[in-house]
Amino acid sequence: MHQRVAAINDLSGLGRCSLTADIAVLAAMGLECCPLPTAVLTTQTGYPDYRCVSFTGHMEDYRQHWLQLGVSFSGILSGYLATPEAADQVEAFLDTFQKPGTLYLCDPVLGDNGHVYRGFTDASIEAMGKLARRADILTPNLTEFCILTGTDMEPLFQLGRTDAQALFRALQEKALLFKGKKFIITGIPHSSLSGEHLVTNLVLDGEKAVPVTFPHLGGTYSGTGDLFAAILLGSQLQGRSLERGAQLAGELIGKAIRSSKAEGTPGNDGVNYEPYLSLLGKE
Ligand code: PXL
After folding, report:
1. Per-residue pLDDT reduced to its tens digit, 121-150
2. Which residue positions in the chain have pLDDT lower than 50?
3. Which residue among 151, 203, 238, 273 sits deepest, i.e. has the most Cβ atoms within 10 Å of its Cβ?
């Protein structure tokens, strides 16, 4: 059956992230992606001297026009929001289009590697927290999870080096602050008992905590979180389990990172995911 997803995200000319990733991934998964831009940028914000035009002032037009057309969405995905006001617009969009049976995935794009992205303020964090409370599924990376839950990151990194199971339990406990939400916390670095470097996407759903683990390839690449979020939402709409979605996303992103590493792609340019989109078709 034909399914529509509203993708509320920015359009960055370089960086293979946000809407660029959403449109490619959702189409490859057999879903219609309806882009609602939150901002238009020359590049993602990791490049020096990027230019950003906020699209916040146009978001209400989309809501009104789409409402007038009577469209509905099986899924709603929100990602990068350049201003707290853009988050208010997402709330208005949800008031109109979040119906019973609509799956809303909030990717709380706020930071990575222990740092908040450039341009974000306390107000941005608070606004993202409000959206997170309306989501069915959240896909923060470890940094974003810590920002949203007010958790100190360093002790968690320490724990990852010594006792990954204790780290996962600590994250599960913190996630109770967002009771009833399904979480996939992405990119959790840790070591195996034999000292291997690993990275886990931790699926938290009620009592369940399932680590989906891959070798840690290293490097930080633009857009991997956006790819993950779009694949996760797409795989839910395709009827796959959260664990299977997390596995599929991890496999595709792993292949794309390996390819980019082999070519020496700069992290800001994102990963070579394009050749692997065919992995995302229905099973
Ligand atoms: O991939 C997250 C992201 C999305 N959009 C913009 C960004 C970033 C991360 O830096 O700058 C504009």
Report:
1. 999 999 999 999 999 999 999 999 999 999
2. none
3. 273
- Contact, 236 vs 103, CB < 8 A? yes
Q: What pLDDT is attached to residue 80?
A: 93
The residue type found at 168 is F
The interaxial angle of helices 84-97 and 56-69, nearest 10 deg, is 10
For 183, the token pair is: 């979480």
pTM to 2 decimal places: 0.97
What spatial distance separates the first Cα and last Cα of the chain, rounded to whole Å? 15
Distance (Å) from CA 198 to ligand 1 centroid? 24
Which pLDDT belongs to residue 218? 87
Beta bridge partners of 76: 6, 104
CA of 119 to the centre of ligand 1 (A): 11
For the Cβ of 260 lying below 6 angstroms from any atom of ligand 1, the answer is no
Pocket of ligand 1 contains residue 223 by CB under 6 Å: yes
Residue 111 Cα to ligand 1 midpoint, Å, equals 9
149: Cβ–Cβ under 8 A, 6 or more apart, which residues? 174, 175, 177, 178
Can you tell me the distance from the alpha carbon of 270 to that of 262, in angstroms, rounded to the nearest whole number? 13
